[in-house]
Amino acid sequence: MTSLMVLVVVLLAGTVGAFVQAKHTALERLELQLDQINVSRRNLLQREFQNPLLAPKVLATSKTMRELLTKPSLIAAKEQNEVLEETAGNIHVDAIFVLNLSGNCVAASNWRQLDSGIGKNFSFRPYFQQALAGQTGRYIAKGFTMSKTGYYLALPVNVDGKIRGVVVEKISFDALQRRVKDFWRDDKELDLVTDENGVVIVSSLSDFEFKSIQPFSDSTSKAINASHQYGTEILPIPSVYGDVLDEQVRFVNFIDIPDQSFLQKSYYYDDLGLRLYLNLPASSYWKIVTSFTAFSSLLALVILLVGISIFQRWVYRTKLMEAAIRDPLTGLNTRLYMDDWYEAAIRSHNRNHLAGFGLVLLDLDLFKQVNDVYGHLTGDEVLRRVGEIVRNAIRGNDLAVRFGGEELAVFVQCTDLAEATSLAERIRYNVEQFEFMGKTGRVPVTLSGGVAFHETNETFDSLFSRADKKVYEAKELGRNRIRS
Questions:
Q1: Domains observed in the chain
Q2: Which positions of the chain have pLDDT values less than 50?
Q3: Which of 237, 396, 431, 437 is most enclosed, with most CB atoms within 10 A?
C-alpha cells in the first residue's frame, strides 16, 4: 500500500511539475507575443496622436498667431482662421483652434461652420489649464460645440517669453477605430485603448466604447462632471477577472462576449496619456499548456496503469480479508473477527481485573414483519441504518458484531455492568427515535437487548448465555427495552 501511494504521489508530482512548467512556458511565449504586438500598437498610436503635435508647435511660433494674441483684430482673426483651415485639411485633423488667456476661442479651422467654437469659452477644460501652466495638454472628451469625441492636444503660445494664449488640436478616432476593428476581425485580438480615467476611447468592439474598465472613484467622478468631459454617464464594462498569472497578466471574461475567455496585459504610454489593454484568446494559452504536457501525461498514464494493475491485485486480496472480518451490509464486524477479539479480552481480564468488559446482545423486534410488510430492500436499509447507529455509539476500544440476521453483539470495554447497560440503552433509544422511511412512509423499528458483565475466569459461552437470557426477558416484557 505504501509503495503504491509513493508511486502515485511521484507520478502526480511529475505531472503537476510538467503542468506548472508548461504554464510558465506558455506565459513566456504569449507575453513575448503581446509585447511584440504592443510595439506595433504604440507606433500606431504615436502616428495618430503624437505626430500631429508638430503642426501646433509650428503654428505656436507663427507670426499670424502672435499678432492675433497680442493685437487682436478682425483682420488678424480672419487671416489666422484661413491658416488654421488650410493646416487642418492638410494634416487631416478635426479642428485646430486658438484660445486667449481667458479661454475664449478667437480663431478656429472650422470658422465657416455655424457650430464652430469661435466666441465660446473653454477655460474649464483641463487641457487649457495644463497649457497655461506651460505643459502639453492632453485630453480626451466630447466636443463642447460639435458633441463629437476626440483627442485634444494643447500647447502654450509664447510671445517674448510670456504665455499669451493656447493653440489646440482635436484629432478624430475614426481612422484608428477602423484599424483596430481590422485587428479583431483578422486575429480575434481585442484591443482596448483607454484614457487616464480608464474610459475606453478606442475598441475592437463598438459596445465597449465609452465604458470604463473599472468603476470610478468619487473624486474621479466629480472631476469628470466638472469638466463636462464625456457628456454622458460612463458605465463599467461588465467583466469578471480570473487568475493573475504574474504582475501584469491575468485572465478576464467579458459578459458581452460569452463562452470566451481572454488573457489580458496592459501597457501605459506616459507621453500619450493612454493605456492599451491587449486581450488574446485564452485558448492560445491553454493550447500551449496542453501540448507541452501531453507527452508527460501519456507517459505518466502508462506508468500509472501498471501501478493500478499491481494495486488492484492488492485490493482484491484486501477485500477478501475485509469480507471475512466485516459485514458489508451493516459495516459491523463478523463472528470470525469476534472470536479473536473476545479470546484476547478474556485473557486480559483474567490477568487484570481492571480490564473488564461487558457483552450487549441486541435483537430487532418483529423484524420479519418489516420484511413482509415493507419488503426486503427496506429491511436491508433498516439493518444498514441500525449498524450505522451502533458504530456511532461505541468507542474505539469496543467491538460491534453482526451475530446473525437481525441479531447484533457489542463488546464494551468498561468497569461494571452499569456502564455497558448505559451504552445499550443509548443504542436502543437512538434506534427508536430514528426516522426509518419506506415507500409508504415511516417504518417503526425498535430493538430489545440483554447485558452481561464478564466475570473473571468465565468462559465466553457462559457470558453469552447470561446475556441471551436477558434478551429473552426483554422480549417477554413487551420488547423495546434493555435487561441486565
A1: 335-483 (3.30.70.270)
A2: none
A3: 431
